Amino acid sequence: MNDNAPIGNLNNFPEWLRRNAQILYGFFGWYVINGLIWLILVNVNMDSSGGGPPAYVILNLLIFPANLLALILLAAGKRTRKMGLGILAALALNLLLSLLFGMLINGVCFIPFYIVWIT
Fold it and tell me: Which residue stretches of 6-76 are H helix?
């Protein structure tokens, strides 16, 4: 291993990582960017007026189309197509996890012995 190689040099990494670096950038980058957006939305009190829908509901309606637009723009370019594939994989994993959690919560909510007023 060459100790004098610069830190950003991908030649020090395994072959599979060098080939799929853009996919991993897109996958983890999507989670980091959207995690920061949601962290800001949760920590900031967006509804100070007291009337109408909270601002985070309106921003939620803008975040998903922005994600789709970023996915389409990255997939359209030949050099960034793999990054778009990573974002698509992150969206698919997020959809799968939300479906699994939804089925789990729905199943738990219909178990009668968890309902206090029946027992």
Answer: 15-19, 21-43, 55-76
Other residues' Cβ atoms within 10 Å of the Cβ of residue 11: 8
d(CA 60, CA 64): 7
Tell me which amino acid residue 103 is. Answer: M
- Distance of CA 1 to CAs 4, 11, 22, 68, Å? 9, 10, 24, 41
- Could you tell me if 26 and 90 are in contact, meaning their C-beta atoms sit under 8 angstroms apart? yes
Which is nearest to 83 in space by CA: 12, 98, 91?
Answer: 91
**pTM for the full model?**
0.68
pLDDT, one tens digit per residue, over 18-69 is 778 888 899 999 999 988 888 877 666 554 555 556 666 767 788 888 888 9
Name the burial class of residue 55, with classes exposed (0-12), middle (13-18) and buried (19+) by CB atoms within 10 angstroms of its CB: middle
The model's pLDDT over 67-99, given as tens digits with 9 standing for 90+, comes to 889 889 988 988 889 999 999 999 999 999 988
